[in-house]
Specification:
This protein has 8 helices and 8 strands. By secondary structure, it is an alpha+beta fold. The chain has a single domain, classed as Class II aldolase/adducin N-terminal domain (L-fuculose-1-phosphate Aldolase, 3-Layer(aba) Sandwich), CATH 3.40.225.10. An 8-stranded mixed β-sheet has the order 4-3-2-1-5-8-7-6, sandwiched between helices. Bound molecules: zinc ion.
Length: about 240
């Protein structure tokens, strides 16, 4: 993928997250691995997802130095640099603060797969309990990356979520699905909880169709078209 395309994909990923309700004002970020191995592309600090244009997407090296783009990096850039440094199969990382995921992670509940959207997470989503504060050092980012292992999603208890994938499309859509799954579960909990929970093995079987990147990409394409329709209807431009 060309650099211009990577930057545009990071911008689009943020807009999808904003439209899906995963913004927390100016906090949260999407990253993509630089195709030439120079580092990580992610938005500059101080901007909401929907405000970002290509020029606001910075290229950071693995020590956080700005190699291209306009603005200063987020303090939590080590989340991205350290996961991408360790996991060759990951090309994009998302860190956001979605309300229902934060609420579920703060509770004693495990995420349960009782819907198609939660079926994506039938294998379970673990909690990382040492990430409540800012993850703003290489050591903190490395500890988080070690905790994530090869999982696609991780709750940061008291803070937010991390998702990772082979593309911005997959990492972003995973975050959107996770927030929806947590929202559904909190609804169910308000009415006594899930009466007949599936085991993880049963859920993996019942919801097998949700376990592919193709499934996620179908949702991404829709969300991406929705962003375009919204921007066109509201006369937003990239300049
Ligand atoms: Zn954060």
């Amino acid at each position: 993928m060309a650099v211009a395309d990577v930057r545009s994909e990071v911008v689009r990923g943020g807009r999808v997250l904003a439209l899906a309700g995963l913004s927390d004002m100016v906090w949260g970020h999407v990253s993509a691995r630089d195709p030439s191995g120079r580092g990580v592309w992610m938005k500059a600090n101080g901007l909401g997802f929907e405000e970002v244009t290509d020029d606001d997407v910075l290229l950071l090296d693995y020590d956080g130095n700005v190699l291209a783009g306009r603005g200063s990096p987020h303090r939590e850039y080590p989340i991205h640099t350290e996961i991408l440094r360790r996991s060759a199969g990951v090309a994009s990382v998302v860190h956001v603060h979605p309300p229902h995921a934060i609420a579920l992670a703060a509770s004693a509940l495990e995420l349960q797969a009782f819907s198609h959207v939660a079926g994506v997470f039938a294998g379970g989503v673990r909690r990382y309990r040492d990430g409540a504060g800012l993850i703003d050092s290489a050591a903190a980012g490395a500890a988080l990356a070690d905790a994530l292992k090869d999982d696609r999603a991780l709750f940061l208890t008291g803070h937010g979520v991390i998702t990772a994938g082979p593309s911005v499309a997959v990492a972003v859509t995973t975050a959107v699905m996770l927030e929806r799954a947590c929202h559904l579960q909190l609804l169910a909990e308000g009415y006594g909880g899930v009466a007949a929970p599936l085991s993880s093995d049963e859920a993996l079987q019942v919801y097998a169709h949700t376990q592919t990147d193709k499934h996620l990409l179908g949702a991404w394409e829709y969300l991406s078209r929705k962003v375009d329709r919204y921007r066109s209807a509201t006369s937003l431009t990239d300049q």
